[in-house]
Here is the input.
Amino acid sequence: MTSELDIFVGNTTLIDEDVYRLWLDGYSVSDAVALRVRSGILEQTGATAAVLQSDTMDHYRTFHMLERLLHAPPKLLHQLIFQIPPSRQALLIERYYAFDEAFVREVLGKKLSKGTKKDLDDISTKTGITLKSCRRQFDNFKRVFKVVEEMRGSLVDNIQQHFLLSDRLARDYAAIVFFANNRFETGKKKLQYLSFGDFAFCAELMIQNWTLGAVGEAPTDPDSQMDDMDMDLDKEFLQDLKELKVLVADKDLLDLHKSLVCTALRGKLGVFSEMEANFKNLSRGLVNVAAKLTHNKDVRDLFVDLVEKFVEPCRSDHWPLNDVRLFLNQYSASVHSLDGFRHQALWDRYMGTLRGCLLRLYHD
Amino acid sequence: MPGKLKVKIVAGRHLPVMDRASDLTDAFVEVGARSCPSKHRERQVDDEDLQDEPLQITVLDHDTYSANDAIGKVYIDIDPLLYSEAATVISGWFPIYDTIHGIRGEINVVVKVDLFNDLNRFRQSSCGVKFFCTTSIPKCYRAVIIHGFVEELVVNEDPEYQWIDRIRTPRASNEARQRLISLMSGELQRKIGLKVLEMRGNAVVGYLQCFDLEGESGLVVRAIGTACTLDKLSSPATFLPACSSPSKDMKEIPFNEDPNPNTHSSGPSTPLKNQTYSFSPSKSYSRQSSSSDTDLSLTPKTGMGSGSAGKEGGPFKALLRQQTQSALEQREFPFFTLTAFPPGFLVHVGGVVSARSVKLLDRIHNPDEPETRDAWWAEIRQEIKSHAKALGCHAVVGYSESTSICEEVCILSASGTAAVLNPRFLQDGTVEGCLEQRLEENLPTGCGFCHIPYDELNMPFPAHLTYCYNCRKQKVPDVLFTTIDLPTDATVIGKGCLIQARLCRLKKKAQAEANATAISNLLPFMEYEVHTQLMNKLKLKGMNALFGLRIQITVGENMLMGLASATGVYLAALPTPGGIQIAGKTPNDGSYEQHISHMQKKINDTIAKNKELYEINPPEISEEIIGSPIPEPRQRSRLLRSQSESSDEVTELDLSHGKKDAFVLEIDDTDAMEDVHSLLTDVPPPSGFYSCNTEIMPGINNWTSEIQMFTSVRVIRLSSLNLTNQALNKNFNDLCENLLKSLYFKLRSMIPCCLCHVNFTVSLPEDELIQVTVTAVAITFDKNQALQTTKTHVEKSLQRASTDNEELLQFPLELCSDSLPSHPFPPAKAVTVEKASPMGEGNFRNRSAPPCANSTVGVVKMTPLSFIPGAKITKYLGIINMFFIRETTSLREEGGVSGFLHAFIAEVFAMVRAHVAALGGNAVVSYIMKQCVFMENPNKNQAQCLINVSGDAVVFVRESDLEVVPTQQPAANCHPSCTEGEVTT
Here is the structure.
């Protein structure tokens, strides 16, 4: 006696969260059955392995049929074939678009192309995430990227609207898309200590302040939406950043800046002497990063530069985080007192974001 | 009566990409009510045509250089628009369906019909007759008169009798077939409607339409139903069961108690066995009944009853009987397809009557004269009628017909429950007034229907009669088998359960007549064995009555399958069933003896366990009372009734005799051994689960609103090596048991819940394939209430168990798991999420989650039951009767047979829901999947499936919403076109 056909179709589509997770994790039916058996479900329910096998198959088939719809979540809402309560629809979508930290760190900032897809094998072996799951996550990134690439308006809103993701997940995707678009290097060894959350935090700040979309002043004005492009950095802004060079190129200005900072921080900083000794190096580093951003290649290396030029020197001197914060605050604020410096707004736009990023990046 | 049909195509969405180069589709639409050009005279169509033919909307992709490609079609049955009370507009998104690709996008359509009322109404069309699949009086109606049986049958040639060798494209032949069947069923419905109008009725209740795919010999569409005159209950706010007024008629019961002295039938030995098998030795294969008394006199029994009639009740009784007789004599077949009745309608139940006949199919030469098929069914019905007579009954209720076809052999089956009915509903009775004056307050309710309608001195079969355990006045049989639902007023002890008898018998492959003869020879043995199995399993459960009995015999190339499903209950009015005793044949052998006693012990244990499980603890009073009848009820009976003294004494003996009765199973061969084993292999459902195949589960009434209707299909391939009867039986048994186990597992998040209306269908699509299709609904019930009752019960039984029996070691364990408030299944989180799900859109709006809540798809519930728990049906929108064919030539790519069928069934559900939603409804009740014919050819990577479903589209309102905002619910269901005013009317 062999089973030829075995199906179960409910008027309301049954979704088993545990099986969904196994499916998303890319396990084959037999692996999933084995894992479920290990979870002790047989003892709990008194079911047999055959029952479990048939149940798992059923769910897998359902998920397989749903996958097509999950690629365009609004379709899932409007389709008529599967009657799924809204809460379950939300769960299906959210879980489908969820990704593994380990995986996203591998592909963050990489071009979402066929070439990268070929490397998924290696990523799979490296991270221990099944190839199937890697593919799903990669395809999700790519799909979201493709859909919102040419769109105007807020990146997060666009993602939310077209993929019905929760706020948290939509922000993460915005970061992924932003990184993929600007190809920021994140894979270097010295960047390994950074988590996806660190990068996502920086991405959000950069989207808010450094992109074309950030220029649109009044969000109520419908026209401003037209220019709101969150994906690309504001080229004009990057060009203008060259002007900041004067801060380190002009020796007087640099000395004045240093004295202002030192005066303000004297006695407040545990690492004052180290700061004082390093001020010029640090300032040069930060300003040079800004000045270099006109070149695409240097944009890509932004995080490498930041870590090299600022994070690592501070860390080697064992600056506590609070001192870093005090220093950066004072460092940005003091520029306002430099009479000879005319690019205050530009400086604020640059340093405001950079300060946030650096504080986030500064950890072990 | 011509009319104007207005169709508006509003929008399309999710269309497939038809042009690969541009990733676009140039979609356009063709609308046609009649695609046949010869009859396409004018834009105006007769409503006769409207009734026959569905509206057909074809969506195509425009191609400049080649022929336009079909994307798919939408068939819309516009019947509901033709009767005044139902929907006035059909509006909504319909899936675009293609028989090769399945659903491909959706189209938004608005349909309206303007009928010109000035012309002669109801001439050829039967506009105005309402159809209901529901086998009871629909909830918001009142039955004025129940006229009786209507049937019709239409035959035609099957456009594609062999799907594999086809001449035209598969799509064309599938569509031709779909169209033909919907045309035929439209015609059938219209013809039945005409018959109803002739009978002066206005509705058909319990409408059941079936297709017989006879292959080369053609296609038969047949339907049966019960014609009624229904009255809409005026105020929808009063939530009363239909026919609340005649509840007093219950009291008339005793007057019909007189035995029928002139039923001189020497029938079979138990109610169920009252069947005939059609042995067909003659070439014509005409039916030949095995029971000798089929020709028994059909003379009215009017005068006869008066002999034993009492002084007081006599005249009325005679009058009543006369009324009933005359009312029923008029009818050719006093059959009713209903399974639940207005209170007082059902007076007595005799037992199951059934008839089968084996026929050889021949080509239907003239489709306009389906006489042969008509004659076949007429024969069977006549037989059923005479069986009912033999049981002293003048009517058959819960009547149904079915066929099983394999190649050119066809088994026709009909079954029902012989019953005595109250004539009040059958005619515009003039006696109503005087009958209603009769007040019989001394009569206990809830047992009347159990009382035997036949003469106890001249019983149609040997049965143990006892005095009714409820009223102690009338005689009752020791077991009762019926095809109807449990009457609402019946007193039941404990809970019910699903009981199935399963059987396979090998048959030699043969041709034509030899084959028919072989089948005819096997049938009686199968019926007998199915019956024995049912009886054994019933006893094993400690129960004494079966409701909703449905025996299906399926014929295949080399085997016959029998599957009987019923819901067992313990009726308080019937005696406690005796145990099962095993008797060995060779008493000398010591080890054998030991084996027997071991088995006996196992059986006894099982019975005791089942009694606990189903909470069967009948009051223990009977012991003393039976010995010496308590004077009180007796006196009363003497005072008020005119029962003859002599018969009383006879029954006293019967009582004592019946009590000791134990069912003896003789193990004399391996077969019997198998039987006993199979008895014990049935595993009870896990705790928290109950199952039945009737509308409601006896003993559970605290339903909550979560329902989940489902269809499950399994096909197994038998290995041809081990084809013995035993192996077959085991395979079949395992198949059914595993299927049930799977269901319990899948639905574990709904615990505590009950599977209701569990409907098994068996078919044998090929030599070594067995297909089982199950449709049922899982309904949750209130855990707390249920728990309380079980707890007290468990306590009681614990005491009993401890005092009674120390041997039953597994008892405490069982009971502990029962009484624990938490179930051994995964935590209830899943439950809570799902609980809110079906209708709880409101709940999710409040969630902070993504904008998923603005889903535009309204929830449509589907259920095989006639009601929705926790809700009130406010309006019936019309019958849903859909037939689909799906075919694939890329079976592997679609996920194999399972993937293919899974998708198809999901699509069928979607199309049913879409139609209901477009009618302005939010549920389908009395949903049934009548056919699911699946054929595969894996070598060619092909498969084909035909599905036929039906049900009643309704609007329901949650009872909780009813108080706050009436009629808000259905209107809110994204159908602005469904005006609120209509909902309330």
